[in-house]
Amino acid sequence: MSRQDKATTERFTKTLRELVKQPENKVCADCKRNDPRWASWNLGVFLCIRCSGIHRGMGTHISKVKSVDLDVWTPEQMESIQKWGNHRANLYWEAHLKAGHIPPDQYVEHTHFCALPLPVFDLTS
Ligand SMILES: [Zn+2]
């Protein structure tokens, strides 16, 4: 496993801490609790510790969970979480789950490694 240089890792951590201060990322994507410190980088959402446990339980083929504060993030993971974030991810997932429509082209790549459809939003109800 190749190690990322420390400066890059620190820059990513700083970016993540900025991201969780954004209004849409300030609450858990699943249960809306304040101050999520975890994220599913492939789904592109920030999560509280409880929901991060649920996501972990789904398996890494569905949701890839990392800590905002403790884990080393790779450029690929940063790109995904920055591209999505709670607001866009929720719009996408909720629209998808309700309508069951085929995702627009720009989402295909994301869809591809997410193994749709997922019961993500049913877990908290
Ligand atoms: Zn939560």
Can you tell me about this structure?
This is Arf-GAP domain-containing protein. Pfam families: ArfGap. One of its GO terms (molecular function) is zinc ion binding. With 125 residues, the protein is mainly α. It has a single domain, classed as Arf GTPase activating protein (Annexin V, domain 1). 44% of the residues lie in helices and 7% in strands. It contains five helices and three strands. Strands 2-1-3 form a three-stranded antiparallel sheet. Strand 1 and strand 2 form a beta hairpin. The longest helix has 15 residues. The radius of gyration is 14 Å and the shape is globular. About 15% of the residues have low confidence. Zinc ion binds next to helix 2.
How are the SSEs placed, and which strands pair?
Layout lengths: L5 H14 L18 E3 L4 E3 L1 H10 L6 E3 L7 H9 L1 H15 L8 H7 L11
Antiparallel strand pairs: 1-2, 1-3
The chain binds zinc ion (ZN).
GO molecular function, one term: zinc ion binding
InterPro entries: ARF_GTPase-activating, ARFGAP/RecO, ArfGAP_dom, ArfGAP_dom_sf
Organism: Pleurotus ostreatus
Find the CATH topology: Annexin V, domain 1
Number of strands: 3
Regions with pLDDT < 50 over 5+ consecutive residues? 99-117
- Succession of helices and strands: HEEHEHHH
Query: What's the story with the biggest beta sheet?
Result: 3 strands, antiparallel
- In percent, how much strand structure appears in the residues? 5-15%
> Could you report the average pLDDT, rounded to the nearest whole number?
83
How far do the termini sit from each other?
39 Å
Task: Give the CATH level 1 class.
Answer: Mainly Alpha
Helix amount: 40-55%
- Count of domains: 1
Q: At CATH's second level, what is the architecture? A: Orthogonal Bundle
Global outline: globular
